[in-house]
Amino acid sequence: MSEHQNHPGGPMTGCPPEGHPGGHPGGKHPGAEHAPKKYLDDGVTPICRLIAWEVTRSCNLACKHCRAEAHPEPYEGELSTAEAKALIDTFPDVGSPIIIFTGGEPMMRHDVYELIAYAKDKGMRCVMAPNGTLITPETAQEMKKAGIERCSISIDAPESVQHDEFRGEVGAFDASMRGIQYLKDAGIEFQINTTVTKHNLHLFKDIFHLCERIGAAAWHIFLLVPTGRAVELGAEIISAEEYEDVLNWFYDFRKTTNMQLKATCAPHYHRILRQRAKEEGVPVDFEHFGLDAVSRGCLGGIGFCFISHRGQVQPCGYLDLNCGNIREIPFPEIWKNSPQFYNLRHAETYDGKCGHCEYEKVCGGCRARAQTMNGHYLKEEPLCSYTPKKKPRA
User: pTM of the predicted model, to two decimals?
Assistant: First the structure.
C-alpha cells in the first residue's frame, strides 16, 4: 500500500515530532542561506512516491514512543477543509504519490473521509494509519466507501499486557484486535507495524505468528528513532551491534514466509541485504528481493516526505526539519526547491562515514537519528557499526 522508503505495500510513519507554526515571509525557503550555489541547476528533482500527511495530531492514546507527544484535545493551526483540499490539488504535480492519512489518530479528524474521497477521486492511492482502537463496523465501512486500500495497525507485543503497557492504555490490544476484525469484515487489507525495542526483541517470532494468524498482508518492523516521548526510552534503544544482529535475523527470517516483510527506519538493511546476497551468490533483483532490490534505505526528501497538521513539510515525521510551509510556499515548489531536500538528495553533503560509504546510494543512514543523536541531519548515522572501505573524499 505505501510506496515509501520502506514499503510500496503499506503505511506508515506514525506520530511525528512537534512542527513549527507558520511559514516564511515572502516565500523564502528555510535553510536557503545554506544551499549550495549549484542548487536547482542540476535538474535533480525525483518523483515523490509517498506522502505521509498528519491530518491531525489529536490522539486517544499516549504511546511511550510517540514522536508527537499527542493528546486527545484539538490542536491549534490544523489545516482547514478548504486548505486540505487545496493541498490535495497540488499532489499530482509532484508525481502520483500514495497518500498516507496519519496522525496522531487520523480518525479523530472530523472530515477525514471527505478528504480521502477527494484524493481518491483524483486517482491517488489512499492508505491510513489508525491505531485501531477507534475502528467500529460503521467506521470501517466509511473507510472502504471513501477509498482506503490498506490500514496499518501497530502491535508491539503478542499479547495484551505488554502491548498495553507500551501504548499507555489498558485494553488497547483488545481494542486494536477488534478494529482489525472490523477491517477484515469490510474487506480492507491491513498490515502490522512493530517498533523494535529491547523490551520486545525476544518476542518477535511470537508477534510474527500473531500476524500470520490474523491474516495480515505484511509485517513491518520499525527501528526506534529517539524523538518526542521516545527520548525517554533511552534504555530501550538497541545498540548498533544489536541493530546489526536484528537486521541479519530479519534477512534470514524473510526466507521462511511468503508474507511481505519490511524493515523501516532501518536503512542499513539495504546494505546487509547486498552483503548477504553476495555471500550467498544470489542476485539482488526484484525476483529475489522484491522492492527492497530497487529501493533505497532512507527516502526522506528523495521519494518521500511528511506534511504536518499545520502544513510544515519535513523529510519524515521523525525529523523535525522545517523545509517550508504549504501556507506560504506551494507544496510542489517545496518538493522541488527545498535546500534541505537538495542536501538529502546529494550524499556528498553528508558528514562522516555516511558521506563516503560505498553503500551511500542504497542506504543513506537514518537522517532523523543523525539529527537527534548526533546533532545534525547530515552527520553520520549513529547506530551503524559498519566501517566503509572507501576513503573519505578529499
Answer: 0.85
